[in-house]
Specification:
By secondary structure, this protein is mainly alpha-helical. It is built from 3 helices and 2 strands; from the N terminus they run E-E-H-H-H.
Length: 95
């Protein structure tokens, strides 16, 4: 279905700008199921983060591993932290 409105509603939904105007997708989700899914993913990422921090906190790993491996571990840690922050933000929006 397509609905034409003079202004887009204030919703957290994907918007695309076209030559004809703006298009917004109407998305409906099962909030309870999504909260459970996000909580499980957050728990998994928190576990991963503790392992990654422990690895980088080990002096022997940092000293003996090739610099490229250490940098890759640091990048993975930063990426995981960013993803975790994003998931927490999504979960807060559903609350």
């Amino acid at each position: 279905e397509i609905h034409f409105v003079p202004e887009l509603p204030e919703k957290d939904a994907p918007v695309s700008v076209t030559a004809s105007g703006k298009v917004m997708l109407h998305i409906e989700i099962d909030r309870a199921a999504e909260k459970v899914r996000l909580a499980k993913e957050i728990e998994r990422l928190e576990s991963d983060l503790s392992k990654q921090r422990a690895k980088l906190g080990t002096a022997s790993f940092v000293e003996r591993a090739p610099p490229a491996v250490v940098e890759q571990a640091k990048k993975l840690l930063a990426d995981t932290e960013a993803k975790l922050a994003d998931l927490r933000s999504q979960l807060a929006k559903l609350a």
